[in-house]
């Protein structure tokens, strides 16, 4: 039955309007990344300043990728934490077990969608690296980037999911934007609220072209699991009105 | 032969508190199959809340005894996934309720035809009128041929041609199933095979 709930959630999400919005979002992100790699510059210019273009492509693309994930998190949150989506449960859920399957299906779809976007955009970055600025691709580095950005995106989704299951307001969907700007502008914070944010959120840093996370990946996985479990527990208990 | 006894819903001291005046208080009753059960009451009297409690959608105090059967439920507030097509939506509900593809296909044909929705099956729900959405809301409640049917204000938004046909369908289904509906249009149900319940400020009167 989980498969049926997943299928229903997929059909709910992947309708033509959303597919167009998704393609536009991904297209703009790819365009921005290609621009950072100098796609609009001449071949000779890119060849002459190859090192600079390589650096720009990596630095700018990671920032672009991080921001695209924020926008995508807001988009997904607005799709899946609404009264319309809860009403799908009203139509299809009759007991606790089905409620559990419904929320698990929801989480599966949002995590799968986020993964698909992150992997696609990271592969596009690899293509730009190889064919635009003619750099060697370090697949280990690329894998680390995918994992770090994915953890970042999923943690945004979980925190919004948790907050929206308590407070049903569209404003909550903007939390990733606030977190993003807070963390980007306070990178040297050593204490206070922003320090806690850096400890909890998988904030992706680029130091000497290396992907760096503040804490071990396992810690973030535990943190995401706690948030995810809380989302499920609250959903099982709350009134579906 | 259907076993009527097993389809009953017994409610004991059901209370759902939403605050000062809303909700339902200490409702005890039994909904029996064989006759159409009609719940009436003013707006905000608690009719929809009663259905939500039976469906287990909200937390409540008291006891509801019912068989673990699939229930066909059409809520009053039919907020539907606007991007989904009529067919995708109904197909998803039917599959979740355990129907095989063949039976689901057959039932969809029957009910889409009954409600005049056949030509709209591929359309996104967003493109349907209010009345058409109510019809989709009703089809999803019928499509898996449930033995227990709960319809909250099923006549709302329907055209004058569909209303008498739906009432006949409900009357027919009530003979072999447990059918409970809420309505403000009691005068349209001009037959004897019915039991009336009136909710006044969250408390129940059986007529």
Would you kindly provide a written description of the structure presented here, covering whatever features stand out?
The complex is a heterodimer of chains A (241) and B (207). Chain A has one domain (2-237). Helix content of chain A is 77%, strand content 3%. Chain A has helices at residues 2-13, 16-36, 43-48, 50-80, 83-92, 96-132, 139-166, 175-185, 193-200, 217-237; strands at 204-207, 210-213. In chain A, a hairpin with a 2-residue loop joins strand 1 and strand 2. The longest helix of chain A has 37 residues, at 96-132. Chain A is globular. Chain B is globular. Chain B has a 6-stranded mixed sheet, with helices on both faces. Chain B has 2 domains: 1-69 and 148-158 and 165-207, P-loop containing nucleotide triphosphate hydrolases (Rossmann fold), CATH 3.40.50.300; 79-146, no CATH class. The chains are: A mainly alpha (241), B alpha/beta (207). The A-B interface holds A 1, 4-5, 7-8, 11-12, 15-18, 83-85, 87-88, 90-96, 98, 237, 239-241 and B 52, 55-59, 68, 70-71, 73, 75, 77-85, 88-89, 92-93, 95-97, 124, 140.
What structural class do you assign from the helix and strand content of chain A? mainly alpha
Spans of chain A of at least 5 consecutive residues whose pLDDT stays below 50 are: none
Going by CATH, the homologous superfamily of the largest domain in chain B would be: P-loop containing nucleotide triphosphate hydrolases
Please give the count of helices of chain B.
5
- The overall number of domains of chain A is 1
Q: Alpha-carbon distance between the termini of chain A?
A: 23 Å
Could you give the order of the helices and strands of chain A? HHHHHHHHHEEH
Number of strands of chain B: 9
Q: What is the H-and-E element order of chain B?
A: EEEHEEHHHEHEEE
Task: State the name of the first-level CATH class of the largest domain in chain B.
Answer: Alpha Beta
Give the overall shape of chain B, derived from the CA principal axes.
globular
Q: What would you report as the Rg of chain B, rounded to the nearest angstrom?
A: 17 Å
